[in-house]
Structure formats: C-alpha cells, structure tokens
Design a protein that fits this description.
Alpha-Beta Plaits; transcription regulation; phosphoprotein; 4 domains; single chain; 10 strands; alpha/beta; Rossmann fold; HTH_AraC-typ_CS; five-stranded parallel beta sheet; 536 residues; sequence-specific DNA binding
C-alpha cells in the first residue's frame, strides 16, 4: 500500500481528512497525522511516507519550511500535496516551486478531489519506480557486460591470444585492467572436488559464487594494493597482485594464500587449492605465469588433501613417461580377462609415476589411451563403447583415488560388453578402424592403412566402402570431427592445439572441414559452448 502522512495544525482538518475516504479500500495506508512541521519530520524519519499532505500555515515549522527540509532528507522520495485557504496563492506558488506536486483548497475539498490528486501522486510514484528499476537494470547490465568482457579477455589472454601486443594493451586499457608494469605475482585458485561441490546445489548461481569469492579475497588484500581477479573456467580463478612490500617475500605470499583457503572454507564451505606464481613483469607475462601455476596444480593428483604452495615446488619430470613394458602388461591382462591383475598393474604404474614425478596429465592420458584401445576393439562389435559419463569421470578425476574408482568402473563395463556376440565388420575393416582411432593424432595415408592390413590400396578402398558405406577419407574425417568437437569443450586447449591433436596440421583446412560438418567454425563453437556455461 501507498503510505500517506497528513500534517495540519487544525485538529478538525486532520480528523476530517481521515474520515473523508476509506483509505485502505483505495490502496492507501493512513500512517498518522502531525500537528506541525517539527512533529512531521520525526514521523517522516520513522515511517518514510510515499505521500505527504501538508498545510502551509503552521506554528514552529510552516509548510514551506517543511518542504525545504524534506528535500534535504536523502531517503525521502515521496510526493508532497499542499493544503491552502483562499488568498494563499502566493504561498501555493512558492510551494510548487519547491517541489510540491499539487494543492487542495480546504474550503471546497471533496472526496473525489482528494482521490483524484492521490491517484495523480500514485501514478507519478509508479512511473518513477519503473524508471528507477529500468536504470538499475541498465546499470547492472553494464557491470555484468564489463565483467564478462574482462573474463573473456583474460581467458583469451591465457589460452588463445590472437591479439598483437599493441591490441592487447589497448583492450586492457579499454576494460580498465591494471597490472603493475614492474613486478606482479599471480595466485591460481582452483575449486577442489568441483563436481561434488557444485552438485550439492548450494551454488546454482555462478555469478553469486564468483562475486563471493572475489569479495572475500579482496577483503584479505591490503587496501593499498590493487587486485585483478577473474574467473577463467568453471573451477579456475586467478588473482594478480603487485609484488611489493608485504607480498614481496615468499612467506608473505604463502600467508595470504593460506588465509584465502581458510576464509573460503569458513564462509563459503569451499575447499580450494592455491598455487603461487613466480614474480613477473606486466600484462604480457600473465599467460606464462598462469599456465605454469595450472601445470603445477597437477601435484594435487598425487596428494590426499588440498594444497597451497609455490609453483616452482612442483618439479615434474617431463622427460619421464610410462614404460611400454608396463602398458604391454596391462594389455595382456585385458586380453586374458584378468581384471584384478589389470587393476594391480594400474596401481604399480601409479607408484612408478609418482616416484618419478611424471605429470598427472601424462599419466592420465596414457591410461585413457589404453581405454581408447579397449573401446575401439569393443566398438567393432555391436558398437559397445564406454558411456560418456564413465569417460568424463576418468578425464576429470582430480586425484588418483577418483581416477582409480573411474578406472574400476570402466573395467566393469568392458568386462560386461567387450565380448560381443557377432562382429559388425570383417576382421580387416575392424583393424583399419582401430588403426584410425589409435593414430588419429598423426597424418594417416591410405598407404599406411593398407600396410597395416597387408592389402592393395585400391582393393582396400573398395572393400572399406562396401563394408561401411563410406570412403576411408570420409570415415576418418567423421572420427576426427567428432573427437574435435569434444576437445574444443576443454578450456585448456586452443583451436590450433585441437587441430594438431586430431592429426590435421593445416588449421585452415581444419576450420573448413569443421564448418562443413557442423555448420560453424571451431572458434565460434568453442565460444558458444562457454557462453552457454556462463548463463545463470
């Protein structure tokens, strides 16, 4: 209801106005009446009326003085209607100049006159409220658009920076991005057990989560420091701070990182890992610092708890790889159907990888590739392939415990489906398909495939078309495009990287082939995928 306050020193006028109309039936709440301007000011502060009807001639504070004082009260946005007697036109005119909406003559006042002017005031209040809401929504949209533009800028900066140095700096200036040109450091923050955390249902609004994380970190940073903060992917964030004074030492940075983990867990019930970069100079070195931290965060795979550490502490041995003999052992167990032995092999390979500081991504990639081999063998028979959900659990596992559980689940699936009732294609064609899947990241020629099955190229081409209904080239391209579509959803991979991972070195050819297959180019597909994730 619209709240109405009446101010008049004549008691009979106050009573008369109250009894003149059924206020509530018309949508108005009579909140009271004051006998002078001084009492009215106290009631305004207490009740914040929407409409104030005031006499002009009163003791202590008269009507004109009251209007002036009301305009000095920031929170009062109500409409003012003045009551006057004959001969007070100069006072009425002055009241209108001061902001009164309209006036009523006491001696001729009728219920319809009062209702008409109340409706006029209510209409203006409603219009102003709508205008304010429109302006508020515009302001919110401007802020959201700016934040989204800044997030997209940082995403492209650390993954797909197609801009020149000059364009990068100009875009940063346009988006009001400030990074110390001398020395800064970066905190890479990633949510631990992300799927479980987001699956709890507490954080259904991504913007609210991002805002809360940013606010808590901002509160922990000294007021004299300017911080750049951005979400990079669903679970990954970074904060960039000047490498000065209290943060110029390793101990100072580590103390801040630990406080961030403590406060995010205390106030948001979020468990995070924080990796601290080496100092760097300027915006153009953000990419290197971020990727170094992200790589170092892989250390979490080998641990049973969240981590806070300096990136240089994760000294992965890029030269070490899983031994071929270890993989052959796993293949033997697969062929023999010895599932328990297969899982024991996985545990042995994990121990080997941990002891030799093999990067978890390399460990996971190797084991998933073995799963792919198994899948391709199964796919040749009645198209039994690993369910997408099981594959995602393997690819997204944050630690070995989760990875092992996903692997055991995959083993259980293939134990059930790997032995089909009848093959769909003859043995030579199944071998060709397996070769394509296994060597998809390489350049594959018809000669290579023919050698694999010991056949004449022309004969193989005709046989393949007869069996599958497609040419070898078309079949291979379909496999590559399907794989590309999944890889493009990975925020860590650029379009160029995806092209190379599916064995196409010519990115322009990849773009044309992808567009022909899906009706859009890879870059737009990737952006569209992340835009859909950004929607609340």
């Amino acid at each position: 209801m619209i709240k109405v306050l009446v101010v008049d020193d004549e008691k009979i006028m106050r009573i008369g106005l109250k009894m003149m109309i059924p206020w509530e039936q018309h949508g108005y709440e009579w909140i009271g009446a004051a006998d002078d301007g001084e009492a009215a000011l106290a009631m305004v502060k207490q009740h914040d009326p929407d409409i104030l009807i005031t006499d002009l001639q009163m003791p202590k504070i008269n009507g004109l003085e009251l209007i002036q004082k009301l305009r000095e009260i920031a929170h009062f946005q109500g409409k003012i209607i003045v009551l006057s007697n004959h001969g007070e036109y100069n006072l009425v005119r002055e009241a209108m100049k001061l902001g009164a909406l309209d006036y009523l003559l006491k001696v001729t006042l009728k219920p319809d006159d009062l209702l008409d002017i109340l409706k006029k005031a209510a209409s203006e209040l409603s219009s102003e409220k709508e205008d304010k809401e429109i302006q508020r929504q515009k302001a919110v949209a401007q802020v959201e658009n700016l934040m989204l533009a800044r997030k997209n800028f940082f995403r492209e900066l650390v993954y797909d920076n197609y801009l020149s140095e000059r364009e990068t700096m100009m875009q940063a200036q346009k988006l009001h991005i400030q990074i110390d040109s001398e020395q800064s450091f970066l905190l890479y923050i990633t949510i631990d057990a992300y799927d479980k955390t987001m699956g709890s249902g507490k954080w259904t609004n991504r913007q609210s989560l991002n805002f809360s994380i940013c606010n808590i970190i901002s509160e922990l940073v000294s007021d004299s420091f300017f911080m750049e903060f951005s979400e990079i992917s669903d679970r990954d964030y970074f904060a960039i701070l000047p490498n000065h004074r209290k943060y110029d030492s390793d101990a100072g940075k580590l103390q801040l990182a630990k406080r961030i983990t403590e406060m995010l867990q205390l106030y948001l019930n979020l468990v995070v890992n924080v990796v601290i970069s080496n100092p760097f100079a300027g915006l153009l070195q953000v990419r290197e610092a971020y990727l170094a931290c992200k790589c170092a965060a892989g250390l979490r795979f080998y641990k049973h708890h969240s981590l806070v550490f300096h990136a240089r502490e994760a000294a992965f041995n890029t030269g070490k790889a899983i031994l071929p003999s270890q993989l052959e052992e796993m293949r033997k167990h697969i062929q023999l159907g010895a599932m328990e032995g297969l899982i024991d092999c996985l545990d042995d390979i994990y121990q080997y990888a941990e002891e030799r500081c093999v990067h978890p991504a390399q460990f996971q990639k190797t084991i998933v590739a073995l799963i792919d081999e198994w899948e391709s063998a199964s796919a040749q028979h009645e198209y039994h392939v690993l369910p997408e959900q099981d594959r995602k659990q393997l690819e997204k596992a944050e630690n070995f415990s989760d990875f092992r559980s996903a692997f055991v689940q995959a083993v259980g699936y293939f134990r059930q489906y790997a032995i089909p009732s009848s093959p769909k294609y003859r043995k030579e064609i199944r071998t060709v398909i397996e070769f394509m899947l296994k060597h998809m990241d390489q350049k594959i020629t018809l000669g290579m495939i023919a050698n694999e099955v010991n056949m004449n190229e022309s004969y193989l081409a005709r046989l393949f078309k007869t069996e599958t209904g497609r040419t070898i080239v078309n079949f291979l391209n379909e496999l590559r495009m399907e794989k590309a579509k999944e890889l493009l959803k990975n925020p860590d991979l650029s379009v160029k990287s995806v092209s190379e991972l599916i064995g196409i070195s010519d990115q322009f050819y990849f773009n044309r082939l992808f567009n022909k297959t899906y009706g859009t180019n890879p870059t737009e597909f990737k952006k569209s995928h992340f835009r859909s994730q950004d929607r609340p």
